[in-house]
Design a protein that fits this description.
The complex is a heterodimer of chains A (about 260) and B (about 170). Chain A has nine helices and eight strands. Chain A is an alpha+beta fold. In chain A, a hairpin with a 2-residue loop joins strand 6 and strand 7. In chain A, helix 1 packs across helix 3 and helix 4 packs antiparallel against helix 7. Chain A is elongated, with a radius of gyration of 27 Å. Chain A starts with 9 loop residues before the first helix and ends with a helix. Chain B has one domain: Up-down Bundle (Butyryl-CoA Dehydrogenase, subunit A, domain 3), CATH 1.20.140.160. Chain B is about 65% helix and about 0% strand. In chain B, helix 2 packs across helix 3 and helix 5 packs across helix 6. Classes of the chains: A alpha+beta (about 260), B mainly alpha (about 170). Chains A and B meet through helix 1, helix 3, helix 4 and helix 7 of A and helix 1, helix 2, helix 4, helix 5 and helix 7 of B.
Chain lengths: ~260, ~170
Amino acid sequence: MNEPSDRVSDDELHALVDGQLDAGRVPSVLAWLQANPDDAARVVQWQAQRLQLRQIARAMDVGDSPQALAGVVLRAAGAVRRRQTWQQAVAAVLLVAVGVTGGWFWGQRESSPASPAMAASPSFVREAVLAHAVFVPEKRHPVEVAASDEAHLVQWLSRRLGSPLKVPSLADHGYRLLGGRLLPGDGAPRAQFMYENEQGVRVTLFVAVFGPGQAPAQTSFRSMRDGARESFYWVEDRFGYALSAESSSADIQALARHVYAQLAR
Amino acid sequence: MGVEQTLGHIPALRRYARLLTGDATRADDLVQDTLERACVKWSLWKPGSALCSWLLTLMHNLYVNQQRDWRHDDGHAELDDAPEPTHEPLSQAGERMELMQALAALPPPMREVLLLVTVEEYTYAEAAKILDVPVGTVMSRLHRARERLRELMIDPAQATRTAPLQLVKR
């Protein structure tokens, strides 16, 4: 006969199943189950449900996330940035005006002398960094349109961005084009091209086409490092480019030079 | 970091939403609504608190509103759609489908509690907070969910019997 104080509640049985029972109560609950086979049977079945559900959840293949989902956040992040200035939002980002610190930059335009005041990169660079972070780890769908269909890829993205695009080749540096995708930008669509080398290291080139009068003023070559990731970016005419990779500055710089040279032609 | 922090939670949200709605399209719609809500309400999130449970709270509210909009059956008999077949290997599909069907046959409030507690491993108190109900309610829903699943797994035909078939019975 069980004393009323020994009575184990259903709540405690659930807590046992879910690992949420106070350790001090475990012996009493187990003793109760030994004495009450019906409850023991229920608990065993609940436990089986729990394990099976967890197994289903683990094994469930929901596929890669539709870009529309990340797009919701990326768009909003852009809006927030416009309100707050993004230096505040991303305090840890180290900005380097390469024209000043690296001792090199090309194509400096008379219209926009490099100055410390311009340390804040344009919003498209921020978009580029986020898009890089989101899509580079994608295993199954890193790109929307594969490089095997390069002509279509270029035509499609050119049409969507409203200006003919060029896709530079990075083959000289051991990177092959994987393909590209269309992304939401700050009021306009953007293009991202992704490259990969033999070791599986990926590099992205983000392209923004600005409307008349909307291009950021600065045009000199700059870089922005965010942890292991670095983006080199520049603005030329109505085009903004950002080349991002997890690599040494020297490597990315060399790649960026290469891209710049091809696009400038 | 701002609202971008939610990006890392998208896969988990999608998985949860898929189990919750039993439907891939509805799940992603729900996730999208949740992210939009999160962007709008971002200033209300307290940095340092668990972002995922905050997102699940938003998702719960949206989900409840959807239920309210879509059906007016005061929650006792959930005429949910059967889950869409997933792209799983056939060998494992059978047993899973059975449990998925049973899960889909649960009234949404029970399903939510069950998923939060078992799959997402929230404590009862955390689940109560996400759902904005007392812990006692979480416990009673959990109990009913598990007992109902038990019945459904013993007699899987029940799961389909609670579905629209009932409507055509004479």
